[in-house]
Amino acid sequence: MMVLPRGKSVKEGVNPNGMDWIEVLGKLHDGHFTGYLNLVVTSGSGMLLFLRGQLTAARFFCGGAEQAGEKALVNIFSASLSRQARLDIYRLEPGLAVELYNLIAGTFWYEGQYRELLDIPYLIDLLKREKFGGGLRIQAGDEVALILMRNGEFLGFFHDGQPGVTTEADLSCSVAWQPGARIDVIRSAGVPETDQSDLLGQIDLITLWDKALLEASQIG
Known about the structure:
alpha+beta
């Protein structure tokens, strides 16, 4: 499950029940929004990543399974109709949104490794020697941080509440030093911004929304 730092808050704790997704996605597209929407329900979670108004990634996680594209959108729409759903919207800088797309579409080198069990100096040296491009995702409880790399060199950190990458980090309160911290090492998919397509231009959004409404009515 690709949990991300929270970015710069636009809205948090919104109940999306009754929300018109066609209108919302249209406004984000026309407003050239860059950032992501995070939906959480008891059965799973969903994420929509935008870059300059283009919907570049859609993911839905449930029971250890991950869905992408149209299937993810239908499940996000259906889940949003639950009264227990929570929607958060975070703004990002375009450069960071490009990096996050490539992590979401990337591959795991290590997943869920306890920080105490990793030889961090060896790991960092290995990533440098391998000219690694991607990120180290560190999670402890609800807190998440990302360390981004390109060609074996550090790009910077992505922390909660920030819209972009920073080269500064307060090591005294780092997520990595919290009890039970786990580390994922994710290789970037390496897709440049110019090749990241817009899902909104490839799908029939009205049909997907109608399908979600039908599924919700059958469950109800």
